[in-house]
Amino acid sequence: MLPTNDTNALPLNIRITLAFLMSLLAFAIMLGNAVVILAFVVDKNLRHRSNFFFLNLAISDFFVGVISIPLYIPHTLFDWKFGDEICAFWLIVDYLLCTASVYNIVLISFDRYQSVSNAPVRCLKPEKN
């Protein structure tokens, strides 16, 4: 029976398959968020206050796919020991980007709440003649 958290106990072919699938996931994250960023740059109609939160979320998630996940794959699956500088860089950037993503989701939720709860009152009440 395999230990529950030890990926090095997995056979090499399974670890290579997992690395390939995780790389596909990182590529999909990069591609999807790049499309969102490109749409924001190309279409000027998207540039209003609430969409800037989505742009910020796309940028932070793009860099998660570019930096965090590619460094996580060999570290976890193949027990690659980073040097102290790369490890510190990876941890700082990973925590920063993941926290930025969470804060962006909170801001998007708060913005949506504000837009629904502070809807124009005349839309809710008919005008009197």
From TrEMBL:
Its main location: membrane. It is found in: Cell membrane. The keyword Transmembrane applies. It comes from Camelus ferus. GO terms for cellular component: dendrite; plasma membrane; synapse. InterPro entries: GPCR_Rhodpsn, GPCR_Rhodpsn_7TM. This is Histamine H4 receptor isoform X2. Residues 32-129 form the G-protein coupled receptors family 1 profile domain. Signal peptide: none annotated. Keywords: Cell membrane, G-protein coupled receptor, Membrane, Receptor, Transducer, Transmembrane, Transmembrane helix. GO terms for molecular function: G protein-coupled acetylcholine receptor activity; G protein-coupled serotonin receptor activity.
